[in-house]
Design goal:
The structure is a single chain. Helices cover about 20% and strands about 20% of the residues. By secondary structure, the chain is of the alpha+beta class. The strands form two sheets. Strands 1, 2, 3, 4, 5, 7, 10, 12 and 13 form a nine-stranded antiparallel β-sheet that branches. It has a four-stranded antiparallel β-sheet with strand order 6-11-8-9, with no helix packed on it. The model is unreliable at about 1-20 and about 285-290 (pLDDT under 50).
Amino acid sequence: MPTSSDPVPSQPLVNAPHPRSSADDLTTTAAAETLQALAETFRRDGYVVLRGFAPESVCAALEQATREQLAAAVAPVEYEAELGYPGAPSSRDAAGGATIRRLRQAFDRGEAFRQWAQAPALAAVVGALLGERPRLTLAHHNCVMTKHPAYGSQTGWHRDTRYWSFERPELVTVWLALGNEDERNGGLRVIPGSHAVELQPGQLDAAEFLVEDHPASRPLLEASQSLSLQRADVLFFDSRLFHSAGQNRGTAVKLSVAFAYLGASNRPVPGSRSAASPVIDLPLNCADRPAS
């Protein structure tokens, strides 16, 4: 388990700038070594960040669609007041009660979202991280996360898989930053290696948030790191990785697109929420070749 003094892991394309053409190169056979390096970092730390991975044209199209639909509150949406997290309005009738937390069902919100969610370069990376052909689940995430100044809430330490029901918990969350994200505006914090940690009884509360004052939680929290993302950066993380986010102390709305993926051999549990929405096979490139 890394400590707070450990250096941030660095691999090719991970946590460092890279030419935008590299995203396209990841769909070729020549990218095998790069994908293998990403997979090794991912298995160890539970996440990788690819800087500038999304083309600017993609970011612009997604941002335009998001801002138009956010302004019109195009359903389905989730309001901050519905969850009641720290910093959220107390009710829909309170000040800030109309603040939207996320735009749901992003895949159905336009071609820009569908193309990004199924992009060959994205599929190549996710396939390498999962070790098999990836599939997109529309049951979870499939949204644009927004964090507004003043009324954007704080999210405690949690794993995305807390309400998910699959035969195996190995899924990948893909998070695209449409603007800069850091501690000031509620950027993500992660605990490297926490995807592989076995928890003790009582270490999660009833809503499956990490109980921070539990004795076994202290070394986890001491290892936490804040992520600083810029527009077009993409965070790929194991859906079991503990992560959290603070409130937006800035002046602009923070926008991030999130989708979740599972391997072709994995399946949602019949009758569960995870099985209630379609699962989509991603395009075949090098994504269908397992990482050795």
